[in-house]
């Protein structure tokens, strides 16, 4: 039986808008009265929420004026938000949800959330672990099936391979038929884990020499597919290594997003247009909103792969809302492997 909610609950707010990279002092964990649910609201006790890279942009001043997706920039005093999994405490009359149901929504970073009924989806048992609903793997799956379309025998390069998206992209590429999978990361320890745990054939180590030279050695015959979460030097290196007709899916721009020096929300890259034309390359940006059928398809395949042991969901669990601001900073600094989840 679901326990009655408390009178107050804690949440993480933006205490000050950072000039550069956010630190713990830019956030505050505050206790606030828990309001009564309105007629169309579901009260959810959050169990887990995702610490995702997009928050870096949403809390920064460079968010002003950017064509961001339907996620509003965070202002001083705002409560942070993001994907969360929780348990329904109360639901409005006529709702298909019932107390005790596990649901997914976008109001994480708080112990209890008042979620509009339309923004709350029941999480069934397709995935063996509720926390797997926080996996951002649908972006990797969509990129590899809708844009880059991996074919048997392909060589695939995944940038930021130890991140939340990259740690799944390589595994998915292999399951879709790729013969050789190469990743990039900035940590020797992570490089070892990518090979030993996730089946990568080779790893380009950022900071260990020119990325283009390392990639040429890892893929002497070139690459057919790129899943890019980083941009910057690694995208330029991938262009140099591209085979005829290579397909590039651009999923993220961490090189700019996680930079302390950047002054805007962009990640400019100098591209040799002649090479793109000569090799017949395709470069396309992936947005989940453009492919609404992907989430359901991904969830079904992800659940089957998890149950069969063909795929793993690499993630780090951080216990307690008090540690959430530090978890964001650690993620920005690349201290974790896979996705970062706060467990309440």
UniProtKB/TrEMBL annotation:
Q: Which residues form the Enoyl reductase (ER) domain?
A: 20-342
Keyword annotations of the record: Oxidoreductase
The protein's matches in InterPro entries, at most eight in alphabetical order, are given as: ADH-like_C, ADH_N_2, ER, GroES-like_sf, MDR_fam, NAD(P)-bd_dom_sf
Task: Give the range the annotation lists for the signal sequence.
Answer: none
Pfam families according to UniProt: ADH_N_2, ADH_zinc_N
- In its keyword annotation, does this UniProt entry include Thylakoid? no
Protein name, as recorded:
NADP-dependent oxidoreductase
Species this protein is from: Streptomyces salyersiae
For this protein's source organism, the top of the classification is:
Bacteria, Bacillati, Actinomycetota, Actinomycetes, Kitasatosporales
